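Budget justification note: compute hours in this period were largely spent on complex prediction jobs such as the one shown. Inputs:
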Amino acid sequence: MPSLADALAAIILASLTAYVLLGGADFGGGVWDLLASGPRQARQRDLIAHAIGPVWEANHVWLILAIVLLFTCFPRAFASIAIALHVPLTLMLIGIVLRGSAFVFQNYGGGGGRVFATASLITPVLLGTTVGAVASGAVGEWGKGKWEGFYGGYIAPWLTPFDLAVGLFALAAFAFLAAVYLTLEAKDAELQEDFRRRAIAAGAALVAMAVLGLAVFPEAPPVNQRVVALTAAAALAAFWSLSRRRYKRARIAAAAQVTLIVWGWGLAQYPYLVPPVFTISDAAAPDITLKLALIAVLAGAVVLFPSLYYLLRVFKG
Amino acid sequence: MSDLLAARSQMAVSLAFHIIFAVIGIAMPVLMVLAERRWQRTRDPVYLDLAKRWARGTAILFAVGAVSGTVLSFELGLLWPGFMELAGPIIGMPFSLEGFAFFTEAIFLGVYLYGWEKVSPRAHLLAGVLVAVSGAASGIFVVIANAWMNTPTGFTLTNGSFSAIDPIAAMGTPAAFPQALHMTLAAYAATGLGVAGIHAFLLLRNPTSAFNRAALTIGLLVGAPAAVLQPIAGDIAARYVARRQPVKLAAMEALYETRAGAPITIGPGIKIPYALSLLAFHDPHAVVQGLDAVPRDEWPNVSLVHLSFDVMVALGTYMALVGLWAGWLALRKRDFATRRRFLWALAIAAPCGFLAVEAGWMVTELGRQPWVIFGVLKTADAVTPMPGLIVPFTAITLLYCALGVIVVRLLSRQIVRSPQA
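Corresponding output:
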């Protein structure tokens, strides 16, 4: 029987999943802006700006929601992550600020396209790295005398091959999602082909990074075999749909694949929130806070989902 | 620079930067919607042009506000993990609600900005109204969390940790209403008079521009009533501070000794007898607590708090007078655009609201020091153990300076430059 704290941890993970699927693709769009090339370079960039424009701010709120729920419901976990990962989180924030403002400056005639694209490249790596540092136990073991000094305390915990591999994995995943979604945004066959090829390349990079990440994980990775099998099936379905140019199916398969990866991470470290020190119930706030947070989420969802549906219906058909 | 001072400075820079965008993000959608409504009623293309220009400006400002707000939500933990660990469960509630209000704001702003051709005129206007309402709600929720830091309620404190917490009681903290009222009015007054003032300046150079006349009128419609009401909200807020945070009031008024019939001190020298007792307790002989009531190490920085307070009050008074002047002209059905002295007064008021907002936040934040949670947790005990905090402080400061310059340049290109008609 999952507890109230488990339910809220699941909501936070769901919120992060939405951030990855929606906000992640906006970052991926920036990556393809950076890598735009060939005879249709300008049209590729236009398509990306057009696709991101109306939705990126709403997509970005999923991250804020996850953070707010984390500090409300699991304050100890939030505090320990904020201390140990101060450096990559601050760098990620600078990336978020540069990406968002450069994007809107570019749209309103202020230039900044390269800043937008470069920040889109770096920010996902830092986000993935912080996730890697939590998952590998570096945050949990922080301050136990294992690391000394500034470098040891604030840099070494996240500057590991595994954490960086997770960072690159996140980048590949975001680029993959963006390319798959852009095949549906593109109105003509040539652009569709451009992004189809990019989607296949990014999908291959994603698989490569997954293998590398598992290889450099400190111990035997505690992954759930069934989730891995499902993820692999979704990946195959995405590749197959892309090769057959079935873009709607490819979108569903790619989203399913990335969702399974995020939930696979969650399941692998369950019941820990910050392994190996805080389980979800260790880090949980008092019951009254959890109950009220759940009520706030449910009430918020009643407003949010119809609005979000409306937004996507207006702009994404 | 000590790490504590660097952390406080980084927080101050982040808040001072974000608050400008937050204030405009709350009020600008109201102006946008009023202009669009007039366009739908009168079909005068000037109003459509205005609504579209303001929407473009709002898009730029909202984006910067959204990302700088994200920075703050992380910084609460990055700089003050001790505070968040203790306070998260009790003040997370208004932050969570703010998250959903912000969601609504972002969604309907997307519809508003990109949906001119895609949704019906009525749906478009409604999207604008929802942006305005959820923007105000976001601001109010964040201010409630801050109010709790001033007058913490809804818990029992035992050995430095909370028990029997009640997040609902925490949201009903006594400072919530006066602070939220004062801040919301400040947003409308600063933005409304800011817009009206810019267009007053442009009218001085080109008195026949229909575009600038329309913009000035809508700006005044929002800004003037708020500026006139603000001194009343300020009085309510000050009386709460007098009762709940007497040390802060003493610092605001530079009152060193507890006394009956306390005077108001303006700047370093001028004293108005009995005025402080009268204002704070509505009784000229009331006893007002001075700084001597608490030990020296629990004093805020008196000269800074007092200066900020005087600056805020002076700017607010000026804006209220300009607002009254506008009301008087409107009652007598005079044309604003031909009153040069009024236009000059309004042009001077344009930056005043934003400066007053900054000064007001310096009063409330510096006035709470050395506490982060008043009477419960000291700021020094909440700071992160990470050394070298001057580095992120410098980085964030440089980043925000650069963004500020770009935003001003873009806005002057997008909005202010009037059509040549």
